[in-house]
Specification:
By secondary structure, this protein is an alpha+beta fold. It contains twelve helices and 13 strands. The longest helix is centred in the middle third of the chain and has 16 residues. The protein binds cytidine-5'-monophosphate.
Length: about 325
């Protein structure tokens, strides 16, 4: 690597959204161990920001933001210098793996210092790690002016994790395969959700394992995308949506975390139109009719002791650059 590259002062910051699954249909495991999915992804207004600059080796730091950094929400003292315990800080970090995959794709010998400003719950079923990987791919592509095609970025993203391609895309999209094959879906709604985070994360493989134990896998049909849900999204119609969202992992996640039943009860009590597990959990999603309703439901959840409840709009865009050289874009 050249000296000039090592001391390049430029920085790029890219923002990536959390995802929820309005429908998560899960089939029996494939020979490779992954489960075939038919899912409807939606990107929601909760973000991680990833800042990159060229460096002589790969490094990563994590700064907790928003409710993740709020001592009132966790009951723990706030230390902004301390990275979250369960986010790996070395080579295992998915943003570093993304950076390595990108330079390998281009046959380059480059490295970067990566800082993740994290607001998406960790191990929460909202694809926060996938958001970081997608943001790192785009940030490094812009930093080094690699002009990687969208097709190649999506292909690299798919090697990093099942949810990473969707984080690039954002909006509302169908996910098939193991979730990595994404196609935008028409969605004319402006939806509001209350995201109820949890202090303790849940392991995605553990939830899929519980699903396998609880399910008659021999009789399991291939998952499919529910046409009624797709119609409601295309029409932006809230009327039927509450009965149309669903998550095949919900029973498995609740079997591992029975305490979440109370969160669902509190959500309905707070006036949510529907309660839904986010991905593999433990984050719980409360469907609201509009922004005012979402604010009311958030306040009710706070009053019921769910300090990590936050109202978010959806759908929002996928990864996007928010600053070059530390200054705002445009
Ligand atoms: O693809 P990703 O690395 O995000 O997956 C994490 C884990 O979740 C996998 O190792 C697997 O145990 C489980 N998984 C699955 N089927 C999927 C997606 C994830 O079994 N479609």
């Amino acid at each position: 690597m050249s000296e000039a590259m090592t001391h390049d002062p430029r920085r790029v910051t890219v923002r990536a959204p959390a995802k929820i699954n309005l429908h998560l249909g899960v089939g029996a495991p494939r020979p490779d161990g992954y489960h075939p999915l038919a899912t409807v992804y939606q990107a929601v207004g909760l973000y991680d920001d990833v800042t990159v600059s060229t460096w002589h080796e790969w490094t990563v730091q994590v700064r907790l933001e928003g409710l993740l950094a709020d001592p009132a929400a966790s009951g723990r003292p706030h230390d902004p210098e301390r990275s979250h315990g369960v986010v790996p800080l070395g080579e295992d970090n998915i943003a570093v793996r993304a950076g390595r995959a990108l330079v390998e794709h281009h046959g380059l010998d480059l490295a970067a210092a990566i800082t993740i400003h994290k607001s998406i719950p960790v191990s929460g079923g909202m694809a926060g790690g996938s958001a970081d990987a997608a943001a790192a791919l785009v940030a490094l592509d812009r930093l080094w002016e690699l002009e990687t095609s969208d097709e190649d970025l999506l292909a690299i993203a798919a090697t990093l994790g099942s949810d990473v391609p969707f984080a690039l895309l954002g909006g509302t999209a169908a996910g098939t395969g193991r979730g990595e094959l994404v196609e935008p879906l028409p969605d004319t709604g402006s939806w509001w959700w209350v995201v109820v985070g949890n202090d303790t994360g849940l392991s995605t493989p553990a939830v899929y394992g519980a699903f396998d134990e609880l399910t008659d896998l021999d009789d399991r049909d291939e998952p499919f995308l529910p046409p009624d849900l797709l119609l409601s999204l295309a029409e932006g119609s809230l009327v039927a949506l509450p009965g149309q969202v669903g998550n095949d992992l919900q029973e498995a996640a609740l079997s591992l975390r029975p305490d979440l039943v109370q969160t669902f009860d509190d959500g309905y009590e707070a006036g949510a139109l529907e309660c839904l597990l986010s991905g593999s959990g433990p984050t719980v999603l409360l469907l609201c009719s509009d922004a005012d309703h979402a604010r009311e439901v958030t306040a009710a959840m706070h009053a019921a002791g769910h300090a990590r409840a936050v109202a978010v709009p959806a759908p929002v865009s996928g990864v996007h650059v928010v600053s070059y050289d530390g200054g705002p874009v445009g």
